[in-house]
Design a protein that fits this description.
Layout: H1 8-21, E1 25-28, H2 33-45, E2 50-51, E3 59-61, E4 75-77, H3 82-85, H4 94-105, E5 113-121, E6 130-136, H5 139-148, E7 150-151, H6 153-159, E8 166-171, E9 194-198, E10 203-207, H7 212-215, H8 218-234, E11 237-239, E12 242-247, E13 253-259, H9 266-270, E14 280-285, E15 289-293, E16 299-302, E17 307-311, H10 321-326, E18 332-334, E19 337-339, E20 344-345, E21 357-358, E22 364-365, E23 379-383, E24 400-401, E25 404-408, E26 418-420, H11 424-432, E27 435-437, E28 449-451, H12 464-478, E29 484-488, H13 507-518, E30 524-526, E31 531-533, H14 547-554, H15 558-573, H16 581-596
Parallel strand pairs: 1-5, 3-18, 4-9, 6-8, 8-10, 13-25, 25-29
Antiparallel strand pairs: 2-3, 5-6, 5-7, 9-10, 11-15, 12-13, 12-14, 15-16, 16-24, 17-23, 18-23, 19-20, 19-21, 21-22, 26-29, 27-28, 30-31
Helix pairs in contact: 2-5, 11-12, 11-16, 15-16
Length: about 600
């Protein structure tokens, strides 16, 4: 072992896992730069990591084609009662699931090193942070965890002899017999992949996948599924939200937390460069927010992560220049294409298509090829500290005070560009009914409408009806200090299928209106769905947007909204007796408001 472990519970757990999984060696990570280099050297020598000549200290990995995204069908919330897991989660009884997985874990690390990764979600020592320990047999996981979390021997010191932690056990599920050559991306077949959460024990077991959130257990598994259950019990919030600071020309700061399903532009918004003069945007986090009520009675948020795990295709200097500048060095790329001069490439990147690359499967690719060069869910893992617009307060232990919540999704019609909730309870209704058209980041058909409440459907670690109630409870606690709630849709299209709103940096115009609403500087018109901007209150200066397009962007088709009612009713009915009365009341109010309009 490289680092001494003094924590009794951790030592006991390390021994138990080693006895079960039978690794050849055990290595306790320190989080040092030397350790990162050591791991990368090992991955380069085995042919798994490809150094990129064009980007210092950056590497390309190619996963097995069967292991390219989150496996929602193989993701389980295992609670004593099926009802407590709720209808949005896959459930297996803990005793049955543990029996199945213990059989899989038996001897699964033979021929491999077992890495013990001590990490903090959030700044080390912050009152909002949590400590996790991931045990994994994947050096790829170690290097990614170095970037995505705060891996450090300091974490072990903070634990001391008796401190508590969240145990996260991971194996790629590919033991090696003596003399057997390893594959470039070891993993188990799909039917043997299990991403299992035991929220009543704050326990995570993952088997068979080496990819992303299936293997980097600090990410969705701990930061959302387990943390959301902890937050419900302990009275805080763990949300699938970006956090940004917006500063107006007078120097007033606004902190915004926004929830969008995957691939709806969260990272782009988090790193936005406003197109309106005098406004400044700074990134605090692009994916997850942990929020607790501070001494001032307001909701304070931290970003529990230490890096960005972003979707590469579509990222460019025109869509997200700050992300591109973040990716110049010290980055891990997965399932991108490799150019002939030793750089990465993906669809949607700036400049001309290269005449030839090696695609994400390791095969020759030219513009005439029938497949994409990069996988649609290709990723980059990059340190957040490298982002040119990272906020100087992004690691403040006490977090930043949240003024505004924004919900949204990818809708080509029906939903206008922006509107405000009437009050907190109506805001919960907006979050609970959020919907998006599916993309490659979700498994399933592309383009289907999927209700994704609070962008948490794949990530809520308990019954979502109880989760809705938790939002009401938090609103009651916050009272008049609760953030104001808004809903946005950047993706509305015209009749001929063109985007009506330019998006990206021009989304700052919508955020400006939202901030002006907070300050009472602009009014709004009441409609059956919420409060919409008055004409001319949105700052469109310098924007070449026709009056007709703007009208269509803000239009409310009551027939189309009434057509949403059966789908919302079906969505809500799945929660049965766990459905909060206050949400039923909001739904009825929505129906009544639509009915009153001629």
């Amino acid at each position: 072992m490289s680092v001494t472990v003094k924590n009794e519970k951790l030592n006991r757990w390390i021994r138990e896992v080693a006895d079960l999984c039978a690794p050849d060696d055990i290595y306790v990570c320190s989080g040092s730069k030397d350790e990162y280099r050591l791991m990368m050297d090992k991955l380069i020598k085995s042919g798994i990591a490809i150094p990129l000549k064009k980007r210092p200290n950056s590497f390309l990995f190619r996963s097995d084609p069967s292991d390219v995204a989150r496996v929602e069908d193989n993701t389980y919330i295992s609670t004593a009662s099926r009802e407590d897991a709720g209808p949005t989660n896959n459930w297996i009884a803990p005793s049955d699931l543990k029996k199945t997985m213990l059989d899989l874990y038996r001897g699964c690390m033979k021929g491999r090193t077992m890495y013990v990764i001590p990490f903090s979600m959030g700044p080390i020592g912050s009152p909002i942070s949590k400590i996790g320990i991931e045990i994994s047999d994947s050096p790829y996981v170690v290097v990614n965890m170095h970037i995505m979390t705060r891996v450090s021997s300091q974490v072990l010191e903070l634990l001391g002899a008796y401190g508590d932690f969240i145990p996260c056990l991971h194996s790629v599920g590919a033991p090696l017999a003596p003399g057997q050559k390893d594959t470039k991306w070891p993993c188990a077949p799909i039917e043997k992949k299990y991403i299992s959460h035991f929220p009543e024990e704050n326990l995570i077991w993952s088997y068979g996948s080496g990819y992303g959130g299936n293997a980097l257990l600090g990410k969705k598994c701990l930061a959302l599924r387990i943390a959301s259950a902890m937050a419900k019990r302990e009275g805080w919030m763990a949300e699938h939200m970006l956090i940004l600071r917006l500063t107006n020309p007078e120097g007033k700061q606004y902190h915004i937390a926004a929830a969008f399903p995957s691939a709806c532009g969260k990272t782009n918004l988090a790193m936005m460069q406003p197109s309106i003069a005098g406004w400044k945007c700074e990134c605090i986090g692009d994916d997850i927010a942990w929020m607790n009520v501070g001494p001032d009675g307001r909701l304070h948020a931290i970003n529990p992560e230490n890096g960005f795990f972003g979707v590469a295709p579509g990222t460019s200097y025109s869509t997200n220049p700050m992300a591109m500048d973040t990716l110049k060095e010290n980055v891990i790329f997965t399932n991108c294409a490799l150019t002939d001069d030793g750089d990465v490439w993906w669809e949607g990147m700036d400049g001309d298509e290269p005449a030839h690359v090696i695609d994400w499967k390791g095969k020759d690719w030219t513009p005439q090829s029938s497949t994409d060069a990069a996988h649609a869910n290709a990723r980059f893992t990059a340190p957040a500290s490298q982002c040119p617009v990272i906020c100087k307060d992004w690691e403040k232990p006490e977090g930043v005070p949240i003024d505004i919540f924004i919900f949204g999704g990818r809708r080509t019609d029906v939903v206008p560009l922006v509107y405000e909730a009437f009050d907190w309870d109506h805001g919960v209704f907006l979050g609970a009914t959020a919907a998006s058209e599916t993309t490659a980041a979700n498994i399933g058909a592309v383009g289907n409408l999927r209700r994704d409440p609070f962008a948490m459907k794949p990530f809520c670690g308990y019954n979502m009806g109880d989760y809705f109630q938790h939002w009401f409870d938090m609103g009651d606690r916050l009272g008049s200090r609760a953030p104001r709630v808004f809903y946005v849709n950047w993706f509305r299209k015209s009749q001929d299928g063109k985007f009506l709103w330019p998006g990206f940096s021009d989304n700052s115009r919508v955020l400006k209106w939202i901030c002006e609403r907070i300050d009472g500087r602009v009014g709004a018109q009441k409609t059956p769905i919420g409060l919409l901007p008055n004409e001319k209150d949105l700052d469109l200066s310098g924007l070449n947007l026709s009056t007709d397009n703007m009208k269509e962007l803000m239009s409310i088709d009551l027939t189309a909204w009434k057509a949403e009612v059966p789908d919302i009713e079906k969505h809500f009915s799945t929660f049965g007796n766990r459905m909060p009365e206050r949400l039923k009341k909001q739904f009825q109010g929505f129906i009544d408001a639509l009915g009153k309009q001629v």
